DNA sequence: CGCGACGTTGATTTGCCTCAACGATTGTGG
DNA sequence: CCACAATCGTTGAGGCAAATCAACGTCGCG
């Protein structure tokens, strides 16, 4: 293993969850990454722009959200340390983004452009597998979310969120969790106040 | 190109959308497929079973759905000709399925077991790319669905469904579309009756 | 023909939203 | 270091979108 900074170790460990790289492959992979810092409330991506990078979070927290004509925001996803985040639709199709991404805290990222990713696929085909697994996991997550939205009331979706993403729940304000769950901040506040529903 | 039946041509054309195969690779791929027929109302997968195949639809229509303790069904997805369908969570993790899949019509399938798929990955690594693209597209679809569920009222989600999947809308009963949209059949009926909302 | 599945309609209820007001906390400029 | 504004969570009154429940007509099919 090379003597690399902590953030590079983090991304290599993330990759190592699914594929194993030689030293040379790891070195090439790291050479394709760009470091970036984002402050709290700063935008990594504005709706309308093209999103040509996928970002790995080494520190901080971000959120991706859609804003409709009435300024109502819907949170698509959060990303904290060890997560990947992008507007996948814009990134894959090279279209302009429908969503925005902003820092929830000051954050540090390692970014891969879509050109760099294509180069990576051709030089180290193993990465096809890595991103296949990444996409599979993302698909499973979203499908599970759809399923819960269809079948569970807001209170249980909130409980499940707390259980599944405790680290995120600690970092992001409640109103963003509400917009992730598809309810208003006021109603989430109401849910938190009432005694949890017990099954008799 | 080999002299193959129409259903094999169909799956080869589907694969050819994303990768190109030599005759030998195509032949090997086809050799891993199992044919299966499912009648209307027959189950391809029962919740609780393990789902160790992914199925390509060559004819007919199917639906995947979750059924909760109160017998309320939530439709996860439909699949008609030229679509792939499976319980992706069960298929990937080899866990027992939470959802069921049943025929909406008499249907014909070509199936790939997860063992056959692993073999395919090792013999023809190009398929890593193919399934990466398949998973990417599925992820984009589900994320778009989450976004619409969060940001649009039922009436617009129904209109968008009709526009996006006209072929499916023609084949499946309304109550299943309702359960896909997350509303009751009665309310969908109500939405259809009223004049479409015009923007003044 | 008769039965079950499907879509429809209407009355009533409910889960969640809207709007408005109010403390508590955070952050920021003077 | 304080004053003030901005942000956040909370509370409550009233309203709306969608659910529930029940009844009924139609149609395809055994």
Quick structural summary:
With 200 residues, chain A is an alpha+beta fold.
Helices and strands in order, then pairings?
Two copies of one chain form a homodimer.
Chain A: H1 6-16, H2 23-31, E1 34-38, E2 43-45, E3 53-59, E4 61-67, E5 73-80, E6 84-85, H3 88-93, E7 100-103, E8 107-113, H4 114-123, H5 126-151, H6 154-164, H7 166-171, H8 174-181, H9 185-193
Antiparallel strand pairs in A: 1-8, 2-7, 3-6, 3-8, 4-5, 4-7
Chain A binds a DNA duplex (30 and 30 nucleotides) through helix 9.
Description:
- The structure is a homodimer of 200-residue chains.
- Chain A has 200 residues and is of the alpha+beta class.
- Chain A folds into 2 domains: 146 residues, Jelly Rolls (Sandwich), CATH 2.60.120; 49 residues, no CATH class.
- Helix content of chain A is 48%, strand content 22%.
- Chain A has a 4-stranded antiparallel beta sheet. A 4-stranded antiparallel beta sheet of chain A has the order 2-7-4-5.
- In chain A, strand 4 and strand 5 form a beta hairpin.
- In chain A, helix 8 packs across helix 9.
- Chain A is globular and about 55 Å long.
Q: Please identify, by name, the CATH architecture of the largest domain in chain A.
A: Sandwich
Q: Please report the two chains with the greatest interface, counting residues with C-beta closer than 8 angstroms to the partner's C-beta.
A: A-B, 33 and 33 residues
CATH class category label of the largest domain in chain A: Mainly Beta
For the sheet with most strands of chain A, the description reads: 4 strands, antiparallel
Tally the helices of chain A. 9
Strand-residue proportion of chain A: 15-25%
Distance between the termini of chain A: 56 Å
Overall structural domain count of chain A: 2
Number of strands of chain A: 8
Looking at the structure, what is the overall shape of chain A? Answer: globular
In CATH, the homologous superfamily of the largest domain in chain A goes by the name: Jelly Rolls
Radius of gyration of chain A: 18 Å
List segments of chain A where confidence is low: pLDDT < 50 over at least 5 consecutive residues: none
**Helix fraction of chain A?**
40-55%
Mean pLDDT of chain A: 94
Structural class of chain A: alpha+beta
What oligomeric assembly is this protein in? homodimer
**Major sheet of chain A: order of its strands?**
1-8-3-6
Element string of chain A (H = helix, E = strand): HHEEEEEEHEEHHHHHH
């Amino acid at each position: 293993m090379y003597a690399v900074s902590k953030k590079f170790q983090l991304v290599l460990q993330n990759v190592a969850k699914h594929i194993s790289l030689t030293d040379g492959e790891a070195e090439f992979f790291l050479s394709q990454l760009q470091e970036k810092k984002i402050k709290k409330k700063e935008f990594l991506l504005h709706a309308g722009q093209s999103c040509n990078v996928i970002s790995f979070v080494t520190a901080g927290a971000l959120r991706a959200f859609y804003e409709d004509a009435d300024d109502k925001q819907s949170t698509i996803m959060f990303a904290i340390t060890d997560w990947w985040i992008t507007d996948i639709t814009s990134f894959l199709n090279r279209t302009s983004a429908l969503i925005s991404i902003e820092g929830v805290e000051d954050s540090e990222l390692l970014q891969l452009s879509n050109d760099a990713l294509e180069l990576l696929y051709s030089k180290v085909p193993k990465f096809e597998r890595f991103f296949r697994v990444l996409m599979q996991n993302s698909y499973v997550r979203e499908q599970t979310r759809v399923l819960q939205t269809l079948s569970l009331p807001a209170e249980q979706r909130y409980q499940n969120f707390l259980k599944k993403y405790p680290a995120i729940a600690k970092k992001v304000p409640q109103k963003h969790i509400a917009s992730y769950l598809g309810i208003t901040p006021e109603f989430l506040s109401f849910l938190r106040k009432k005694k949890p529903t017990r099954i008799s």
